[in-house]
Amino acid sequence: MAECYSEESVIRVSWFTGSGKDYCRRLAEGGGGGAKHKVNYTVVWPKGDKAIAEMTTAMLSPLLSVDGGQVDLVSYARILTRVHRDSDGWKILQGDCIYERDEIIPVAPGTDITILAAELSGYRPSYQGLSYVLARTGQTSDQDLPGEDLPETIAALYDEASAWLLRD
């Protein structure tokens, strides 16, 4: 997977910001909690040796024990990726996650899971559950990423990506 990333790549997701190669290394070490990504569709806007791709995804975390019970965490997002072609072929140059919403769901129906509203209130609404679960597993989450709760962050990301694509 690391070969898919350009040497100058940047990846920005809730639990990681850094190069694509470091992202792959951290995934191999268990970073990201082993979440599976179900990609629903991909739209690609090509221009010469550059392209922007956007994928809608549901990120499914493995079974988690949180606050006395087992839960599933489902995070809904769009992944906006910039790719470019160099002498080695197409490479990922930048990847950004646009968070829409998430859900913490008790595995056994009717099971009560106690999550304090005051603790949730410290996290962004578009990835509140993800941030909560990351904190419960000893990780931190970047609270400055694009999300549906702050539409201006999404507009800025699209504007920046479009300008990059149209630049010669």
Description of the structure:
This protein is an alpha+beta fold and 168 residues long. 23% of the residues lie in helices and 44% in strands. The chain has four helices and seven strands. The mean pLDDT is 91.
Summary keywords:
168 residues, 23% helix, alpha+beta, 4 helices, seven-stranded mixed beta sheet, single chain, elongated
Instruction: Provide mean pLDDT, rounded.
Output: 91
Tally of DSSP helical segments: 4
Radius of gyration: 17 Å
Query: What's the story with the biggest beta sheet?
Result: 7 strands, mixed
Low-confidence stretches: none
The SSE order reads: EEHEEEEEHHH
Helix content: 10-25%
What is the count of β-strands?
7
Share of residues in strands = 35-45%
Shape: elongated
- Class from helix and strand fractions: alpha+beta
How far apart lie the N and C ends?
Answer: 28 Å
Quick gist of this model?
Helices cover 23% and strands 44% of the residues. The chain is of the alpha+beta class. Strands 1, 2, 3, 4, 5, 6 and 7 form a seven-stranded mixed β-sheet that branches.
